[in-house]
Design goal:
Helices cover 35% and strands 25% of the residues. By secondary structure, the protein is α+β, with helices and mostly antiparallel strands.
Amino acid sequence: MNAGARVSGITIYEFDALMAARSDFAGAEGLHPIPDNVYRWLEDQCLRVAEQGEASWLRLAQRRGRRVVQVTSFVGVIRAPDGFQIEVLPKVGKAIGGGVAEARQLLIEMLCCLQGFRHVQIDGARISAARMPLLEVFIAEFLRTVDHIVKRGLRSDYSSRQDNLFTLRGKLLMAPHVRQNLYRADRFFTEHDKFSIDRPENRLLHAALRRVLMLSASRLNQQLARELAFVFADVPVSAQPRIDFQRARLDRGMGYYADALAWARLILDEESPLTGTGGHRAPSLLFPMEAVFEAFVAKHLAKQLARPMILKTQARSHHLVRHCEQNWFRLKPDLLIRDADRDTLVLDSKWKLLDGLKANGTDKYGLSQSDFYQLQAYGQSYLDGRGDVVLIYPKTATFDRPLPVFEFPKVERLRLWVLPFCLKSRQLSVPDCAPFADAFRDISDAAGADLELSNLG
């Protein structure tokens, strides 16, 4: 695709389905027509993912007797070989209202909590999210970081060069000199140091800028990318990004390169920090919402704890069984609240929308039996079978308060709670009883905060 070409695409939500445009039942909720060639490519991706056992970001399904492709709980941008873009936003965006712009803003804020994605400046990204698709927001963030580097100046470095020169410079290499200059007394084959902006970091940024010129459909992004690429005109484009990333180093005084290189890795590798799906050059920016939600909860839940409580992420000190003097099946709850050296609460986050009104034996609020087994195992190992374990789900209009406590008949001293986490106020709703009253600061005004927040700002 030529730089500046107009890129077509659609915006959908998690678990929406895609069908070939020629199908005759378009218009159903959660069902979106796409070009035939893009649909065929997605079908091929479904088969490849199934064969290779990769994370299932797509799956084949049926709607009204017709075959469709359904996205799963991965969000971000899917880019087809012809440039067609499918923007996938969190499903909770439909549940909390506010439309596409707010769902996109929510995703950006949640992504900022990921370990490898904290270089996003939230305020600027929010403004961009209101008027452009997610991929363009990411590109704008990358260009902002490169512009910052250009304003501070490209860093140069000494690099060793070998060349056949007209003047003696540096160290004369006798063997190649004799070989090449036996009849050329005016030449010297030397090894010398050259102070140049041709260094791995600059080559990578130049390559990422050229890639952005192919990806972006935004006039503003295109214009800025061309201006920045002109500054890098004397820097070769990285021919082997993986090798250059291995050689790149942030020396003293080069900290201002860090964010731009993080973006360049994302753009050139065409993979997210979590999924590693870049090998087939398609889903260039996809993120599993389970991991995104877990990181978001962990960051903000820590601020809600009362002293001296601390929050530990990804605890891994216990195993499910011991066999032949070996520990098998490590138990890794998402979150663990500790008081000094004592574990007080075990928590696990789940990216699923519950319905607090469906308490019957069939629906069970939408809860999963396997999650209960998992939390029971955590409680037995980390709390010695006595205390409280917690399942955390996103807060919605149909799940806006803690569910009544669940008790394990055979483990009388272990209780399980299902609690909502508000994505707007960034707070967990907790019951007014021990041990929550001791572990959490007073959040009695949290419900009012929910009502006051009309956006994510």
